[in-house]
């Protein structure tokens, strides 16, 4: 065991830290679309909480708060593995609570990665409702939220205590938002 511990410490000391970008926001604001494009532009790994939760539910687990937490933790573990290799990771998740956000702070701390929180919003309610009506992500178990569901989530959405880059997706395409995001994060380095 001592040899394995020494080897792990050596690997950790020698690695180049990755960059963790966490794209957050209410359902329907464009998190997954922006994350996919931003990851492709930056040659990063893209991880989506909804895809992980969908996989867990498709195995027969009942939809619950615990499955949601497990999806965050499974995604965190995958992010850490990639960050430890010096890769950049883009995660998309609602991240509406301090507990959810702590997941990503922990990943950054454990790996020495740079962490950037991005919060996407839609300032026009009609646009937000329309996007919810038109979307079909093909997730059989996670499902699509209604406007009432989004309003409930908005009421409980925790105020940000971290530095966060807020971007309005109301009148911009996912490509425009992603390109602007990549540009701003690159300039920040």
Automatic annotation (TrEMBL):
Protein name according to UniProt: AAA family ATPase
Coiled-coil stretches are none
- The superkingdom of the source organism is Bacteria
